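Encode chain A's predicted structure.
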Amino acid sequence: IIQTLGNSNQQYEPDRSHTAGTDWDPGRAAVASAYQRFEPGAYLRNNYAPPRGDLSSPDGVGPWKLRCLAQTFATGEVAGRTLIDIGSGPTIYQLLSACAHFEDITMTDFLEVNRQELGLWLREEPGAFNWSVYSQHVCLIEGKGESWQEKERQLRARVKRVLPIDVHQPQPLGIASLAPLPADALVSAFCLEAVSPDLPSFQRALDHITTLLRPGGHLLLIGALEESWYLAGKARLAVVPVREEEVREALVLSGYEVRDLRTYIMPTHLRTGVDDVKGIFFAWAQKKVGVEV
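Encoded structure for chain A:
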């Protein structure tokens, strides 16, 4: 059963009982307000349709992200029963390699419109974004002889719920989470830097999601490097610019051992005017045992 997909009007009510009177932050409030104009369809066209969505060139950003994920899961180290995707947005590509290694996957997003978009794809409804080119590419990279239809069937079967989340809350999934916790692994793509007004907020958000992960569990983090804004239809959204060394430092401060950190420089022909991103980072980090964040 995919919980919340049949009730996409459900509103997220984070627990503020322990922060009453201290939790108001105008920077985060401005971010939340700006995101009410976010248009999933425009975001998907900007980033996952050609030219950025052209997977035919091995030097493209799409193949690079999919390779990073596939190669990391191929090590066999990032595996278990439960995985939470933090801030899924309207995308599913980040889980195409993960779904073979986890039987219980939770997708999450702050915005109802993004949870609705995910629901369209998970239920195979008309109007859903077509991810088949991405599914085909992942099957090609993994080389297991699996068809892209099998890949998508497996992912749909293993996503058990789509939940609201607020990474700026100490309990990001609320006080009565429907997701089994702590998770064996977390995935997060283009979330933390895109919803944080500054670097300290980015660090706190990382701390918050780390509480959802078991000691020894793994985090795969993808994000934008040195980006300050991006477009999603009528929404022009601010991003906290981060550099590779700042990502590494944040992970260490949140109690991780950084296993791998790679960067991709956005080529000129993919700088399409929908953002000012300079590059992409991919981080594989393992939560240290005995460290409390």
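The chain has one domain: 41-287.
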